[in-house]
Amino acid sequence: MVRPAGKQSCGRVVLVSCLALLAAGLIADFLWASSHPFSSAGMSLPSSFTTVIGKLPPNSDEKDSKKKKDNARERKLSATFQDLAAPQLQWEKMAAAPVPRLDGAAIQIRNFLYVFAGYGNINLVHSHVDIYNFVDNTWGGRFDMPREMAHSHLGMVTDGRYIYIVTGQYGPQCRGPTAKTFVLDTDTNTWSDFTPLPVPRYAPATQLWRGRLHVMGGSKENRHTPGLEHWSIAVKDGKALEKEWRSEVPIPRGGPHRACVVVDDRLFVIGGQEGDFMAKPGSPIFKCSRRMEVVFSDVYMLDEEMKWKVMPSMPKPDSHIEFAWKVVNNSIVIVGGTTEKHPETKKMVLVGEIFQFNLNTMKWYVIGKLPYRVKTTLVGYWDGQIYFTSGQRDKGPDDPAPRKVVAEMWRTKLILSP
Ligand SMILES: *[C@@H]1O[C@H](CO)[C@@H](O)[C@H](O)[C@H]1NC(C)=O
């Protein structure tokens, strides 16, 4: 008599934990969908979600759970609590890019913004370059990238003519990275191969400094684990002057999606995150699944001593800004990004401000509001105006979670703090 009862309650425990696990799994999926790049996925819950919730065993103490719920509601933070006060700016909408892009890359050379790669949607990646001309505000000059080049999470930098394109993710969803590295000569629009990185990375910080191409941080091969390694190789006119990459002083904190900027012979690494979406184990399409990331506001600087120094932090944590910056008048200007997830909903929260790091005073300022919150913007500067295009925008003024991948191009007069 004891036995069947024992068995039954054991069975119930198993059932409950199975349902709990299932629910947890679906909630994780839902979080991915809601923080997910692509509108259709983010719009509605899978019907199974509601079904399973309905099937969950009713709580024996309903009063108690009701009390808990009410408390939770009282504690509920505004979805937009991370927005900062900032001046409103006059934004002008320019010609949209030929394709929408998330996690693309961009390099400005004179009056041209070269825009590379990126996801069009989670199952489609671009493998070409589009060019915006700031003089007549038109797009054109499309040409293909090499077939072997990564399609997102690239490291990229220019010396003013040659663009170095280092490692990155190869293919859509959450596929693996490639270590393959290339050079584009923008005078002739011709590509050449370059020494592959010792191991592949996702979205490593990349810069040219003191005659060397530096690559550091990013995510390791599983897309999630932060890498601390830092390599460099001597370069000139698009060619490596050495046979191998050399190991350099590791960065204090690893991870992808940071701004890496050289000004006045100092190298800055700004913001970024630890952790990222990973491929679902066993998924034949490497389906992206959410892993909790930690976004940070840290700023590190490397000077001739080759020791990392801690600089004043950003006004708030900011990631997905690797091509979202420009240097203007000894200030680093950063447009949009992602900040820490919402503590209640755990949804990804986009950034709707422009930041300025004034290198004369070593102070940060919030210098303006964007037309919407947006991450992985591609930024240019021309004739007193700051431009941004592409990326993934928010759901609306009251919902900072990511939704639509955009092609729009916007500009406004840049007003810096002295
Ligand atoms: C940068 O400095 C120049 C020279 O002082 C000034 O004319 C220009 O307005 C400044 N640009 C911005 C965006 O502040």
TrEMBL record:
Q: InterPro entries in the record, alphabetically? A: Kelch-typ_b-propeller, Kelch_repeat-containing
Organism from which the protein derives:
Microthlaspi erraticum
Q: Which residues form a coiled coil?
A: none
What protein name is recorded for this chain? Kelch repeat-containing protein
